[in-house]
Amino acid sequence: MNAAVRAVTRMGIYVGAKVFLIYEGYEGLVEGGDNIKQANWLSVSNIIQLGGTVIGSARCKAFTTRAGRLRAARNLVEHGITNLCVIGGDGSLTGADIFRSEWAGLLEELVRDGQISEEVARKNCRLNIVGLVGSIDNDFCGTDMTIGTDSALHRIMEVVDAITTTAQSHQRTFVLEVMGRHCGYLALVSGLASGADWLFIPESPPEDGWEDLMCERLGETRSRGSRLNIIIIAEGAIDRSGKPITSNYVKDLVVQRLGFDTRVTVLGHVQRGGTPSAFDRVLSSKMGMEAVMALLEATPDTPACVVSLSGNQSVRLPLMECVQVTKDVQKAMDEKRFEEAIQLRGRNFENNWNIYKLLAHQKPAQEKSPFSMAILNVGAPAAGMNAAVRSAVRIGICQGHTIYVVSDGFEGLAKGQIREVGWHDVAGWLGRGGSMLGTKRTLPKTCMEKIVENVRKFNIQGLLVIGGFEAYEGVLQLVEARGQYEELCIVMCVIPATISNNVPGTDFSLGSDTAVNAAMESCDRIKQSASGTKRRVFIVETMGGYCGYLSTVTGIAVGADAAYVYEDPFTIHDLKANVEHLTDKMKTDIQRGLVLRNEKCHEHYTTEFLYNLYSSEGKGIFDCRINVLGHLQQGGAPTPFDRNYGTKLGVKAVLWMSEKLQQVYSKGRVFANSGDTACVIGLRKKVVAFSPVTELKKVTDFEHRLPQEQWWLNLRLMLKMLANYQISLTEYISGQMEHVTRCTLSIEKGF
């Protein structure tokens, strides 16, 4: 929420509006007085990394009454406030809409009672409202992600990872209860991201007799050599008749029937606290900017809207349409129409649920398929690679294919380091960082003959390559060698996995979310150190090759003063302007600076050069320090986003490959030589898409290992604006108003 408060305040000041912060939620609005304070640029400095909200929040009885709203209207009119940005859940937003619809009537009443003059009423005749959804449950229909959801998932996964280690040592079963009274989103995604053995969510109560099935399945996992069981339960879990299923009931059941040592952990309010994740900080900053634009562009005819994210695009949605669908879900659940409740939650929710059910437990394949598939990792390690391998292996086995894994990338494929794997060989891989298979940067052209020989020897008909730019380049080389070697006329797919996010054909690579979070946590600490010393500027170098994604997004997440990247060329004049900007900043109360530099942003303006320049220009005003983050950006456990994204890409890639294999299979052999049989899978705007590598070749800058066009460059506008640089807003692209209906909810978004 703080990142949103910061973005709305700064964007408001930026466009020339007066901005007021209202403390303690609607209570402060009703009470007035000191609860309503005008804000300046520095009011929201150094809050982006804090959890909770610095302006406080409260549930307010008075605002639910007309008398309370009358007092609130008077307080707003006194300050001349006619635009309200509300950050909260569906209750808070519904309240705002009621307030808006009564506004004219409330002003009339204030004029009648002689509390305000008619002229004042005329001046403030219209109240515009825009909402930002802040709710860790992600239970607001129509929006992909609500503010706080990703951070709550981070807390849950930290606990799950910690519990997994103790459960494994003691051979225990753990029942974890997560928040979600009416919405199972947190339980569902954490179940999917941890590979839980069993999952209870309110939207889909288990069939009658589930007790027997669950115990049978837990017993089976143990007998196959697993040392632990994890059961995740949403606090609002119910059975088919609507009776609550409690975590203690589940625990007692396991103890009585199976005699397993079982413990319950209730996560409670831990999930609401802590430092916000990078995704949440960037999301809130984006939505805060969009909210101000929506208020500026509002007319008497535009309905109150909420600003939301769809894929990675900002959109505006009519507030009451979202509230209506959100109520429909609850109604469907109350009336036990559970299938419908899941559909109303949106396609993503439904997808998560179906994929969880596919991967949680091995179902024997209907029939053995004639196909063999090999899976390998290529390039530098990236978090989430193992999640993708795990789901690809399991979904391949479900389809009856023979699945091989290859160690050490294309080099391992050439050396014959190939082995067949089963369902349980990839158990426990989800939360592991790096690459369990081992990965190398070697490209196929150095060992083409040997690769072809092994493809023939193992009869490989499908190749799934999970990796960075080398994975894409490698598959392109294999495709271009098809004319020479018939063995390479097989189906190939690349899952982009690199912290640099520089693979064409996708907006997000696997592992970049984890890397941004790692860089952000380091920068948070560096900022804290700079605040302590006063008048200090840190120059932080990030990885990413020529791609500036990592430094730009980290820059937004930590509120950096500048981020130098190769794609946004800069000259000595720009550097001079940055130094002057920091010199001015040191005259205010914020006496610290943070500048990010992508490792290859400029041939001559190196990190060392920047340090020398800043040091000599800032002499007597501030001093400088260098920090090179290095390989810590590659490591660590994958974030919930990367676990979930990797899992989904693994599933979708193998399903696509199976379909293609079926199409090119005739007379007992696979012959795939068209361009569309070798693709990169990726998230593009709002959908998961497959792009042929031969097509992508035309839009790739191979010298700098970059796609020629990159969507995230428009985020740089936000970075500069929030760092107080005077820039023109003509390039700002406003979000479109979209409607929320049952039909729009059923569209596959891919997130």
UniProtKB/TrEMBL annotation:
GO BP annotation list: canonical glycolysis; fructose 1,6-bisphosphate metabolic process; fructose 6-phosphate metabolic process
Domain spans labelled Phosphofructokinase: 1-294, 373-656
Keywords: Acetylation, Allosteric enzyme, ATP-binding, Cytoplasm, Glycolysis, Glycoprotein, Kinase, Magnesium, Metal-binding, Nucleotide-binding, Phosphoprotein, Transferase
The organism's place on the tree of life at top rank: Eukaryota
Gene Ontology annotations for the cellular component aspect, listed alphabetically: 6-phosphofructokinase complex; membrane
UniProt xrefs under Pfam families: PFK
InterPro entries reported for this sequence: 6-Pfructokinase_euk, ATP_PFK, PFK_vert-type, Phosphofructokinase_CS, Phosphofructokinase_dom, PKF_sf
Cofactor(s) listed in the protein's UniProt record: Mg(2+)
Catalytic reaction list: beta-D-fructose 6-phosphate + ATP = beta-D-fructose 1,6-bisphosphate + ADP + H(+)
Pathway: Carbohydrate degradation; glycolysis; D-glyceraldehyde 3-phosphate and glycerone phosphate from D-glucose: step 3/4
One GO MF term: AMP binding
The UniProt record lists the keyword Ribosomal protein: no
PROSITE patterns xref list: PHOSPHOFRUCTOKINASE
Function summary: Catalyzes the phosphorylation of D-fructose 6-phosphate to fructose 1,6-bisphosphate by ATP, the first committing step of glycolysis. Negatively regulates the phagocyte oxidative burst in response to bacterial infection by controlling cellular NADPH biosynthesis and NADPH oxidase-derived reactive oxygen species. Upon macrophage activation, drives the metabolic switch toward glycolysis, thus preventing glucose turnover that produces NADPH via pentose phosphate pathway.
Protein name per the record: 6-phosphofructokinase type B
